[in-house]
Amino acid sequence: MQHFSLRQSIRHGLVIAAFCAAIAGIQLAYGRGPWDVQLVYSLAIGLPSWLLIDIGRLWLSRHSPIPWPLGWRGWALVAVGGSIGFQFGSALGDAYRESMHPGLNLASAGGPSSAMVTTVLACLALSFFFYAQGKSRFLEGKIAEVERDAAEARLKLLEAQLEPHMMFNTLANLRVLIAADPPRAQAMLDHLIDYLRATLGASRATLHPLADEFARLRDYLELMSVRMGPRLAYTLDLPEALARVPVPPLLLQPLVENAIRHGLEPKVEGGSIHIAARPLPDGLLELLVQDSGAGLAAGGTAPPGPPGPARQSFGLQQVRERLHTLYGEQGTINLIAQRPSGTCARAVFPLNPPLP
Question: What is the pTM of this model?
Answer without folding.
Answer: 0.54
